[in-house]
Amino acid sequence: MEKRRGMGSIVRLDRPKDDPSKGTHGWQVRAPTGFPRKYHSKLFSDNKHGGNQPALEAAQAYLKEYREKNPYKARPRKRPSS
């Protein structure tokens, strides 16, 4: 898979607790803001979206819409002064 800077990513979160009906289960969207080590993040819960696949589809649609409204603009890095 080709890695493209500034596009953002979607990752799966499955953090179970003692009770299987609890914990964090869903897809997380992370998109760089253009500032070093700053990200916009949003979670798409399986429970709220009616399952794994609908949550993934919602996350993909959100990332696409977010990128259209907020195009990635790389900021120049600050170089240490000598």
Describe the structure.
With 82 residues, the protein is α+β, with helices and mostly antiparallel strands. It starts with 8 loop residues before the first strand and ends in a 13-residue tail after the last helix. It contains 2 helices and 3 strands, in the order βββαα. It has one domain (9-69). 27% of the residues lie in helices and 30% in strands. Strand 2 (23-32) and strand 3 (39-45) form a beta hairpin.
Strand order of the largest sheet: 1-2-3
Biggest sheet record: 3 strands, antiparallel
Helix content: 25-40%
Number of strands: 3
Number of helices: 2
Give the DSSP E fraction (strand runs of 2 or more residues). Answer: 25-35%
**Mean pLDDT, all residues:** 82
How many individual domains?
A: 1
**What is the terminal-to-terminal distance?**
39 Å
The arrangement of helices and strands along the chain is EEEHH
Give Rg in angstroms: 16 Å
Approximate shape: elongated
Oligomer: single chain
Question: Any key phrases for this structure?
Answer:
single chain, 82 residues, alpha+beta, 3-stranded antiparallel beta sheet, 2 helices, 30% strand, elongated
What's this, in brief?
This protein has 82 residues and is an alpha+beta fold. Helices cover 27% and strands 30% of the residues. Strands 1-2-3 form a three-stranded antiparallel sheet.
